[in-house]
Amino acid sequence: MKAHRHNTVMSVGAVERALESNAPGMKPEGLVCYGIGRIGSCRVARQQLALLLAFREQWKPTHTLVYDPVLCPGEVEALRQLGCCIADRNELCRHTTHGNTLFFMPHCAMGLYNNLLWANWGPTRLGAVVLIGNSFQSYKER
Fold first, then answer.
1. Do the beta carbons of residue 95 and residue 119 sit within 8 Å?
2. What DSSP letter does each residue of 52-76 carry, written as one string?
3. pLDDT tens-digit readout, 13-55
4. Strands 101-105 and 129-133
């Protein structure tokens, strides 16, 4: 899938077009978000939450799982009220897919992407992963 630079405005339509060109007919059955940030105090985190909710509205996955260790209890409750499930422990992004899953990882370190890929390594599981996050090129440049 074509990478978008960090300053590119991401839209559901752009993701949908990329999905269709790279994996025709794929519809995410699950939605997992790691590293969304402090939605109560960060404007960018709230924008990313809006994008997450737009993904959910577009694809109507069977579940939307969210985890970020920085979330405070009030933010966790707000996410629950928005219909999100909150992971009860820090999986360190080692979530194994059970069907096509879109992973949205806006603030994650390189090692967390590695954990996700290893947890799903193999032709069936890795082929079911759609990953939206930081450009790997940006990690190379650091």
1. yes
2. HHHHHHHH--SEEEEE-TT--HHHH
3. 888 888 888 888 888 999 999 999 999 999 999 999 999 999 9
4. parallel
At position 142, the amino acid (one-letter code) is R
In the chain, where do the E strands start and end? 30-34, 63-67, 85-86, 101-105, 129-133
Determine the Cα–Cα distance for residues 71 and 73; give it in Å rounded to an integer.
7
Do residues 46 and 39 touch, judged by C-beta distance below 8 A?
yes
Tens-digit pLDDT profile for residues 53-110: 999 999 999 999 999 999 999 999 999 999 999 999 999 999 999 899 999 998 899 9
Strands laid side by side in the 129-133 sheet: 85-86, 63-67, 30-34, 101-105, 129-133
Distances (CA, A) of 88 to 62, 67, 105: 18, 8, 18
